[in-house]
# Entry
Amino acid sequence: MNGRSKADDENTSPDEGDVIVLTDEPKSNLGLIEVTVAARGLLKAQNLQPGFLLGWHAMDTRDAIDRLVQSLSSAALEDCNPIATRYETQFGPVMVVTEACNDGVNRVKTRLSLPLEQ
# Structure
């Protein structure tokens, strides 16, 4: 998984596994937010910003995400199930998945991707 920044050359053909890290705000219940290049392209073709679907996901699953965040300090990561929302768009479905991860620290990660990238 390669991270890309706005400074990267946009003429470069990214690998399917490339993601764009939107934010890693510790105060956000969505935690580290990643968007795959394919999902970003699908949204861009429809003039949709990733934040639009992320906002709906956070609002629709608020209680489940709050429980996930609370369980990080009191339970093993294996006990935490991912929280997934599927949004149908004009050009196809987009998935938003929030889950617990451990990259040295227990935390929450949210990924916006196409269903085939799951």
Q: What stands out?
A: The longest strand covers residues 92-102. Confidence is low (pLDDT under 50) at residues 1-16. The chain is about 30% helix and 35% strand. The longest helix spans residues 62-74.
